[in-house]
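Sequence in, structure out. Go.
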Amino acid sequence: MVTGDLIRRARTGDGEAFRALTEPHLRELQVHCYRMLGSFQDAEDALQDTLLAAWQGLGEFGGRASIRTWLYRIATNRCLNALRSASRRPAKEWDVPTVEPPEPTRLGEVVWLEPIPDALLEEMINVPLGPEARYERTESISLAFVTALQVLPPRQLAVLILRDVLGFHANEVADMLDSTVESVNSALKRARASLQRGRPPSAESEPAPAHGSPSEDAIVAKFVSAWESADLDALVALLTDDVFVSMPPMPFEYEGRDVVARFCASLFGAGRRFDLVPTRANGQPAFGAYLRASSGIRHGTGLYVLTLTGDVICAMTRFDNSVLPWFGLPRSLPSDSHHTPNRTSRGRARDGTAARARRSVSQKHAIQMASIYKPIEPAAQRQH
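Output:
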């Protein structure tokens, strides 16, 4: 009855009623758009398009499905339109000065991939999945899974997410896509087969340790120590034989411990030294990377996201520094003193920066969520 009253008020132009109807679903819709598009920025645009379309089309909402299902229908089709028409983010050339990397194993296809902050995913914990969902929540947002989704044809991508990730019934998905149950089942079968063929060898490995567990803390601490001290031997000891490194929007990909060791050696050999500030992305350990300068100021160069299996690292993805603000991380870190900080003082500074980032990131994204209603408010005021 409450929902019915909100719908009636929203149809008369009550913007607050529309917000009350839709706001409980915003975060999960944003994550849905992210899975579809593989880009955090594109997902925000698609979410705003979804809200505008819902506001403009509320008079056509017939009540046969829930508001949540109706919003998923709009969001999915907005993402499909974006996939069919978009010029995706182009690949970038190698742009690390004084570093000559080894020849890559191959050039990646999904150069538009972007990470999503865990602060946004925490609100998804209590969102129920449908009875037919086949993926655990953590797996369905991992970088490996989101990357694999991006090579599927758009319609197969939409069907697999709606059926196997979110657990909608086949008839619900058919209605969302203006299709038939037979067509949905056929697309799902092809999507599952394609996803299985594209699974990396590490997908069959030991699962990652739980978030915040002693096992995860131990491997993360070893990685930070090795990377900050440029200890190549210690770093290589943490890697699987088939470790995989990628760095969108640069297309370079390296697979295998030997070539990854040569790649890291090219960074450390150029005299580049980093401080790492911990955060989390896509349910995985991540770090803002800050290059030390002679002035003591450390400049943000990117974000590293680790994929763990057991007590070792099976993949590392490096994103450019444009993503740091999404995680509440600054573009640079000030000098702690007039001398180069030792490991203990760097650790204290790192922990302090991480704590400030955790406090600010949820607030920043709450403001961003509120701002997506701005284009709707003038229309609501005109209707009054």
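Check: Residues 343-371 form the longest helix (29 residues). The longest strand covers residues 298-309.
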